[in-house]
Amino acid sequence: MPRPTAAQFAYGSATVVATTLALLLLFRTESGVGVAAVGATALALGLLVALRLPRPGHPTAGGTGRATTDRASSAAARTHHALEGIGARERVPAARSSERPSARSSARADEHSLRR
């Protein structure tokens, strides 16, 4: 079983303390059974929070893992190659310099620009 990280300790402990204080103030319990129930609930919630934190280097840690980085780079390469193929087929002609600016702008005002 892997060791817990410092972040898991910190978040779990903070959750236990905050939950215990909140539940004791909310329910205003003074009996031993009520305090034990509040403590058990706070410990369970703290454990749940600590276990749900992603581990560094794990694929589910939001892109920090090696497998996720490899998948993202290969997907970017495929997209780049696909866009290169589109760019080679579609060429946008250069603007003509002999036209007057006002006539060119009014004639082509409704057209969609293909330049990127």
UniProtKB/TrEMBL annotation:
Keywords associated with the record: Membrane, Transmembrane, Transmembrane helix
Region (Disordered): 56-116
Biased composition annotated in UniProt, kind: Basic and acidic residues: 81-116
Biased amino acid composition, Low complexity: 66-77
Record-annotated membrane-spanning stretches: 9-27, 33-51
Listed name of the protein: Secreted protein
